[in-house]
Amino acid sequence: MFGVGMPELLVILVVALLVLGPKRLPEIARSLGRGMAEFRRASNEFTRTLTASIDEPPAPSAQEKPRSEAKPAAESAPTPTKSGDD
After folding, report:
1. Cα–Cα distance measured from residue 34 to residue 16, given in angstroms and rounded to the nearest whole number
2. CB of 25 within 8 A of CB of 16?
3. What is the pLDDT of residue 82?
């Protein structure tokens, strides 16, 4: 992954054991593992959201109406009523 082979990994573990001690090393490893798992979950969720938003067609806005739903001007105008003065 990063070009770290078995000898390098062994040296890193020995130095970590000497610096942190045998009691704190498992705690640090556990918290590091949890952090990496949480990062992986967050990156997977981000990828899923991004992919879904790219694949999903955009929704029509409220201002854009299809022509079949628009009313003609004659239907929307009020009809004149007869008054008794004619």
Report:
1. 18
2. yes
3. 66
